[in-house]
Amino acid sequence: MNHFTSAHDVTDIDHLIERTLAFKANRYTTGTEGRGKRLGLLFLNPSMRTRISTQIAAENLGMHTIVFNIDKEGWQLELTDGAIMNGTSVEHIKDAAPVLGSYFDIIGVRTFPTLANRDADNNEELINALKKYAGVPILSLESTTVHPLQSLTDLATIAETHTMKTRPRVVLLWAPHVKPLPQCVPNSFAEWVTKWDKADLIIANPQGYDLNDKYTKGATQLHNPENALRDADFVYVKNWSAYNDYGTLPAVSGDWLLNEELMKLTNNARVMHCLPVRRNVELSDEILDSPNSLVTQQASNRVWAAQAVLSELLKQTK
Amino acid sequence: MNHFTSAHDVTDIDHLIERTLAFKANRYTTGTEGRGKRLGLLFLNPSMRTRISTQIAAENLGMHTIVFNIDKEGWQLELTDGAIMNGTSVEHIKDAAPVLGSYFDIIGVRTFPTLANRDADNNEELINALKKYAGVPILSLESTTVHPLQSLTDLATIAETHTMKTRPRVVLLWAPHVKPLPQCVPNSFAEWVTKWDKADLIIANPQGYDLNDKYTKGATQLHNPENALRDADFVYVKNWSAYNDYGTLPAVSGDWLLNEELMKLTNNARVMHCLPVRRNVELSDEILDSPNSLVTQQASNRVWAAQAVLSELLKQTK
Amino acid sequence: MNHFTSAHDVTDIDHLIERTLAFKANRYTTGTEGRGKRLGLLFLNPSMRTRISTQIAAENLGMHTIVFNIDKEGWQLELTDGAIMNGTSVEHIKDAAPVLGSYFDIIGVRTFPTLANRDADNNEELINALKKYAGVPILSLESTTVHPLQSLTDLATIAETHTMKTRPRVVLLWAPHVKPLPQCVPNSFAEWVTKWDKADLIIANPQGYDLNDKYTKGATQLHNPENALRDADFVYVKNWSAYNDYGTLPAVSGDWLLNEELMKLTNNARVMHCLPVRRNVELSDEILDSPNSLVTQQASNRVWAAQAVLSELLKQTK
User: Fold this and answer.
1) Coil, strand or helix at A200
2) What is the C-alpha separation between B305 and B149, in angstroms, rounded?
3) Does A285 touch chain B (CB under 8 A)?
4) How confident is the model at residue B29, as a pLDDT?
5) Is CATH 3.40.50.2300 what the domain over A7-146+302-314 is classified as, yes or no?
6) Is the CB of B73 less than 8 angstroms away from the CB of A288?
7) What is the gyration radius of the CA atoms in chain B, in angstroms?
8) For residues B235 and B269, is the Cβ–Cβ distance under 8 A?
9) CB-side neighbour CA atoms (13 Å) of B82
10) Exposed/middle/buried for C243, CB within 10 Å: 0-12, 13-18, 19+?
11) What is the DSSP string of B280-298?
C-alpha cells in the first residue's frame, strides 16, 4: 500500500480490518515499528476525531507527529499548474510538497470540497499533487471526495458487532441537515462496503440526492426510507448535499429523520454515524441515547483504524 | 480525587501544596507515573501560562499531551440537553465527551464565563457534562466560575514565602481594569484560602463588586483599600466585574490602584497577581518591578501545581 | 553563543556550517544532548518551514518542543516600557518573558516587521526584551530585521554545492511581487555572506530598493540585473520592499523577473529562494522546475541548520 487515499489503494480490506481489531485488543502490538519516523498532519479544515485519533495512533506506534494547520498557521496553497500567482495564494503545492516530503516520513492531509466546483473536487487536486511531488506515502484525513479512514473504521465496527456468519443488511440512510455537507463520508462508505463485498448495501435518499454512481455500483438505490429499512441490521445515518445539482439542497418530500417508529421496521438495527451529528436534526436523542447506537464505539475505533493504516504505510518508508 | 474542578474536589489541600513544592524541588520525583497515559487539553479560550505549564507538568510525569483548540481547530459545542441543533453549534457535548474520554486518560478543559448569563455560568455546564459523560478525570484549566490550578499555585506560593508559623494576613484587593473580567480567579482564591484555613483573608472591593458569597464565607469583606491593607502580609491584586449586576462595571469611587503610598500600610507585603496584568492600569510598574512582587514566582509555580494535580488524578486512571 | 538572533551572535560561521552538514550526514550524531531540555516556539506570525524544521531539529536532539501561537492562542503583547496598558495589548513582555524563561530552556520566536514604523522595526523590541528579561538563550525564527536561521541554511547550501576552492560569485537579485515584503531575508543574507567572506556578493535591485547599508557593507551594489548576473555561480532571488521610503513599493523600471535569457549570462548558476515563492511573479516555472533550482534542497537543509544552532545554544542552558 503506497498511499491511503481511497479504497483503490487497498488490496485486502479484510487484512486492514483484522489489523484494526488486533490493535484494539493490544494497542502496542507492534509498538516500535514507528520509532524515529515522523508523521506530518496538515489541516486545511477543522477536525476533532480524525486529528486526535491519528495523533494517538502514531504515538502508539512510536512515531513523532507534527500538526500544522495550514489554513491558520500558514497560508493559502496554489494548486493550479502554470498559475501566475498574483492573487491570494502564497505558495504552490509543487514547492511545498517536496519540502514537506523531506521533513516527514508520512504526510496526512485534510481538505474539504468546495461544493461549488465539482470537477475540481472530483480531481482531488491537493491529494494528487502531494502524491506526485512529496515522494512519501500520503494519508487522507478526508479529502474532496472520500474519507477512507472513516470507512475503514465503519467496516471494522460492523465486523466486530455482527458475527459476519451471514451477510448483514446495511442501509446508508440520508438524513436532514441545515446546510450543504460534502458527499465524502457516504461516497467512501459505499465504495468500501461494495468493494469489501461482505454486506448488502442499500442506499436510501430523497430524489435529487443520488451520489456519484462511481462510488455506489453494487449497491441498491432507493428513494424511500421505509423500504430501505426493512430488516436492516445496520443503519448508517448521514446527511449529504446533492451531487447532480452540485452542492445544492433540492426540496425533500417525506420525513427522513430516523425515529423509533421507523426503527421497528429493522432487525433491531445498530445505528451508525460518523459524528459530529446535529441532534434532533439529523438523528434524534432517543436513538442516539439508545443501546442501538454505535456512534461512540465507531469514533473510538478511529484510533485503531488509523494505527492499522499507519502501520502499513510505514512499510513504504525508508 | 476523582476530578480537579474546584476546592470541593480536594480533601487535603496541604498534601497538594506539599506535593507541589516537592515537585519544585525535584521535578522528576515520580517521573514514570504517567508513562503510557494521555492528557487531552481542550481550549475554548486563550491561555498562555495554563496551557504551557500543564503541558510541561504532563511531560515531566512521562505523559503524552495533545492540545486541541476546540474554538479554532474544531467547532462549537452544544451544551443544552434536548436541543434541536439547527443553529450554530455543530456537536453536542453528550456525543463529544465519551469519544474524548475514549481517547484520553485525563481531560483538561478551559472555558470562560459568558458574563451575560449568570445562571448558565454558575451551572458549569461544560465541566459538568464532561464529568458526566467522559468517564475519565476532568481537570479544570479555568472554567465559568473558578480557576483551581491557579489557586493551588497561589497557596503554594504563600506557603513557600511565609514561614506559616503565624497565620498570614492575606488581602484580596480589587484593581481597576478597562473591561469586564470573570470572577473565576478571586472566587477560587477565596474558596481555597478559606477552606485551607491557614491564613486570614480580607477581601476589599468597591461597592457593587462583592463576589458571590458562596465563595467568600469565612473572609472579611471591606469596601475600602486602606483598612484592608493595614498589616497585610500578602496582597493579591486582581480585577473582576460585578457579580450582582452580573458582568457589568458599576461606577467606582476612590482610588483602587495599589501604589507605594498604600503599600506603606502593609507589613512590607508581598504582591501577587495571576497574570496577565495590565501595567499601570491594574498594577503599577513600581510595584511589579519591586522585590515585593511574587508574580513571576507564582507563574513559575504553575508547573509544579499542575504536576501535583496530574499526579493525583493519574491514580484514578486505568 | 549566548543567543542566535543575527550574524553578530556567531563567532565562527564555518563551524556552524560544518555542524549543519554533519547533522545532515547523521541527524543523530549527538542525539542525546537535548534530553530533558525544553524548547518553546512562539509565533506572532505564520510559518511553515521554520516552524516544522525547528521542531524536527529539536526532536532530533532529544528535546521537547511546545509551540505557542501567541497571536491566535494567546493575546497581544505590549513592548513599550512604561506603557499605560489601557488599549488592546493584554500583557507586557516584561511580565511574559521571565515566566517563559522559567518554563523553557531555549525560546524561539518569530515576529514580523510592521513595515510602517522603521525605527521600531530596527530596534528589534521583542527580541531584545526577550534577551533582557527571559534569562535563557533566544533563537530568532525571523524577526523585524533579519532571518539568521535562513541565512545559515543558505550558506550551508552554497558550501555543499560549490567546491569552495574558488570564491563563488553570488548575486542577490530583487524580484517582483504583489505586495510589500520585509527586508529580513536579504538583510540577513547580505550580513552573513559578507561576514563569512568566502564569496563575492553582488546585490542587484531597482532604484529605490537599496537595503539598509548596515547589512550590505562589503557587497557590490548594482541597479541592473544584466551586469549583476554575468558569470554568477549562485543567484538568490527575493523580493523586498523599499527601506528608504520604508515599506513602500517605488515604481520599477526594467524587467526584473529572472528568465532563461538572463540565465545565459550566468555561469550556469544555481538558483536559490527561501520560499514561499509566488510562481510566475517572483520566479518562473521554467527556472523553478529546472535542475538549476536549489529551493527544495535549501528548505530541506533548514532542519540541519536549526539542529546545529540548537546544539550550540544547548551549551548555554543549565
Assistant:
1) strand
2) 7
3) yes
4) 67
5) no
6) no
7) 19
8) yes
9) 0
10) buried
11) TTTB-HHHHTSTTB-HHHH
Nearest by CB to residue C275, choosing from A66, A78, A99, is: A99
C-alpha cell at C118: 522603521
Q: Is B300 on the interface with C (CB under 8 A)?
A: yes
Residue A169 CA to its chain's centroid (Å) = 20
* Nearest CB neighbour to A73, from listed C46, C279, C280: C46
- Which residues of B are less than 8 Å from A72 in CB distance? 72-73
Note the pLDDT of residue C30: 61
Delimit the CATH 3.40.50.1370 region(s) of chain C: 7-146+302-314, 150-299
Mark yes or no for CB contact B73/A51 under 8 Å. Answer: yes
Whether the CB-CB separation of A27 and B64 falls below 8 Å is answered with: no
pLDDT tens digits for range B59-69 = 999 999 999 99
Answer whether C289 touches A (CB < 8 Å).
yes
pLDDT 10s digits, C186-226? 999 999 999 999 999 999 999 999 999 999 999 999 999 99
Alpha-carbon distance B48 to nearest alpha carbon in chain C (angstroms): 6
Q: List, as ranges, residues 32-71 from C with C-beta within 8 Å of A.
A: 43, 46-49, 51-53, 55-56, 59, 69
| Domain spanning B7-146+301-314, CATH architecture | 3-Layer(aba) Sandwich (3.40)
Given a contact cutoff of 8 angstroms between Cβ atoms, the answer to whether B166 and B224 are in contact is no
Q: Which sign, positive or negative, has the C-alpha torsion A25, A30, A32, A33?
A: negative
Determine whether domain B150-299 maps to CATH 3.30.160.270. Answer: no
Answer yes or no: are the C-beta atoms of B205 and B229 closer than 8 Å: no
Q: Cα–Cα–Cα angle for C155, C157, A72, nearest 5°?
A: 95
Beta bridge partners of C43: C69, C110
Calpha distance B34→B14 (Å, rounded): 23
pTM: 0.97
- What percent of chain C is predicted at pLDDT more than 70? 99
Per residue in B175-231, pLDDT tens? 999 999 999 999 999 999 999 999 999 999 999 999 999 999 999 999 999 999 999
CA neighbor of A199 nearest in space, from A23, A11, A13, A9: A13
Taking CA C59 as the corner, what is the angle to CA C38 and CA C40, rounded to the nearest 5 degrees? Answer: 30
Cα R_g (chain C), whole angstroms: 19
C-alpha distances in Å from residue A272, one per residue of A83, A140, C47, C294: 43, 21, 39, 50
C291 touches chain B (CB under 8 A): no
The boundaries of every CATH 3.40.50.1370 domain in chain B are 7-146+301-314, 150-299
